[in-house]
Please model this.
Amino acid sequence: NFRARSAYKLQELDNKYNFIIPNSVIIDCGASPGSWCQYISRKIFPSKRVDEDVDNNLIIAVDLLPIDPMPGVKIIQGDFTELVTQQKIKDLLNERHVDVVLNDMAPNFTGTHFVDHVKSMDLCECSLAFAEHVLKSGGTFLCKFLMGESESDFRNKLKSKFKKVHYEKPHSSRDKSTEGYYVCLEFNKNITNGLT
Ligand code: SAM
Model:
């Protein structure tokens, strides 16, 4: 009863690391058709009276494609890599810091692995740069990527900014053999700001 099977990947990762928790600000990049948001809203709005909980929670979903409305989820249709879209997210945040940035974006596949890998890593870099601006200290960043040669540079970058960086390959994504996820915990804002 999810809009897409991708929900089971998030569920598996969250069962292991428990980063989707009530009273959070969560940004879901590449959110269409919306199954991750369904998982999130079911977990953090347990009362089913979303209006009682919205004050403390903020879920923002972004995608190039439309997303059918969902209680408690603010939807932005646009290209995440464009500043105008990122500004719309910041407007909704209204200065609030973010607990979790999720990136399940996938490029339009060309079928040439190297090209697809590079496009995927560009989306990873873009979401990380944004996450660094908005995440609170201790925050979580979850990022899908297509395995390939520039992945280790990206992983090293993640390790310099988060206390814990876990490589994960959820069972539910086993069919897509080159897809992996990084679950990055405990964002260290000071390092990013060059204060340490
Ligand atoms: N997590 C989603 C769910 O559970 O329903 C599935 C996401 S799907 C695997 C990948 C999505 O990334 C697609 O809907 C695609 O439109 C989106 N996407 C790819 N590039 C994007 C970009 N530059 N900006 C916003 N969304 C993008």
Notes: The mean pLDDT is 92. Residues 3-4, 6-7, 30-36, 62-65, 79-81, 104-107 surround S-adenosylmethionine (CB under 6 Å). Strands lie at 25-29, 58-63, 73-77, 98-103, 135-146, 162-168, 179-187. The radius of gyration is 16 Å.
